[in-house]
Amino acid sequence: MKENIKPATGRLGVLVVGVGGAVATTMITGTLAARKGLAKAIGSIAQMATMRMQDGKEHLIKDIVPLVDLNDIVFGGWDIFADDAYEAAMYAEVLKEKDLNLVKDELKAIKPMPAAFDHNFAKRLNGTHIKNAATRWDMVEQLREDIRTFKANNNCDRIAVLWAASTEIYVPLAEEHKSLAALEKAMKENNTEVISPSMCYAYAAIAEGAPFIMGAPNLCVDTPAMWEFSKKMNVPIAGKDFKSGQTLMKTVLAPMFKTRMLGVSGWFSTNILGNRDGEVLDQPENFKTKEVSKLSVIDNIFEPEKFPDLYGDVYHKVRINYYPPRKDNKEAWDNIDIFGWMGYPMEIKVNFLCRDSILAAPIALDLVIFSDLALRAGMCGIQTWLSFFCKSPMHDFEHEPVHDLFQQWRMVKETLRNMVGETAPSYLD
């Protein structure tokens, strides 16, 4: 069914939580360079991917649906450190100084607002640029004021809020998360055990009519309370956890094994990472949040209850090790024990020397661009079609998440085609 999509007129303010982090500064630098014609938006589905339409031709996605122009994006955000985006990017050491200098003036102009932060949720970080909030509700009100002020000062028509900050400690789903009334009550009563800072950002964004994208595995907008609120406010929410490196490989390899009906007896995954994200994940409470996200992937793809002979007893282990010398250049190893005809065993070993933020930056940008599109198309609540970009796709209790990368890509294309009133071509897509 064709959607009535509002045009992408005016400016889109993109407020990033963790605007001084490695992912955020890499995304911002690349976007600024791309719109000056100094770099290509490589890795961005919104900018570079094509789709086959009913006319039998391949068209750029940005020519099919009205996406925001990169020139109309204004960046801002919050961070627990006061460094401007240029200083922060230099500290992150993801991009070379010569590349940062291409857009130095623009980066210097991006100065973070004080962050809503609770040291108990990220004990390895000691923020110096933080808000003083008496309660979680006060934290929300301050964030809402920040959003309104940024929107007015930068003459923005719309805002999107992106979490690109560190992984918080593991918070299990509680009664306070199961209804909007219970969530608001817990915020006003300052229940800091169950209300995380990320929930305050999400609530503030939704309250201000801004899509919220969760780029970490935190329990945040994946709760009944936030689903209720996002539908009430007609705002899209998306997440969670950018699917950038090792998990991206899993969502490609696991469907291959299943399609060929090859069995898997074990999958051991380990990483070394030296950036701030790696430091935070060195804390067991924070790693548990990430571990839950990473472990969920292959079970969903393999469907062991349907194929017990092949996947009924898979030993799946995930480890992340903080190793400062490697900085943002994460290295991932996978050892996969598979078996084939007559049960004979085989092994596959994958060594992925990746750049964490280089892979995550276009994902973050695409999630912002497509969430803004969803807002203008009148879509609200969980955007399951954006599962393609996430390790742990959000879903309600009535549905199972889709992890298979190729099924997720079909979901993206089907949604975009529906927006413009087209159906998939009758031949192989």
Automatic annotation (TrEMBL):
One of its GO terms (molecular function) is inositol-3-phosphate synthase activity. InterPro entries: Myo-inos-1-P_Synthase, Myo-inos-1-P_Synthase_GAPDH, NAD(P)-bd_dom_sf. It is an enzyme of class 5 (isomerase). It comes from the Bacteria. Keywords: Isomerase, Membrane, Transmembrane, Transmembrane helix. The chain crosses the membrane at residues 12-34. Residues 245-357 form the Myo-inositol-1-phosphate synthase GAPDH-like domain. Its EC number is 5.5.1.4. One of its GO terms (biological process) is phospholipid biosynthetic process. Belongs to the myo-inositol 1-phosphate synthase family. This is Inositol-3-phosphate synthase. It comes from Bacteroides stercoris. The gene is ino1.
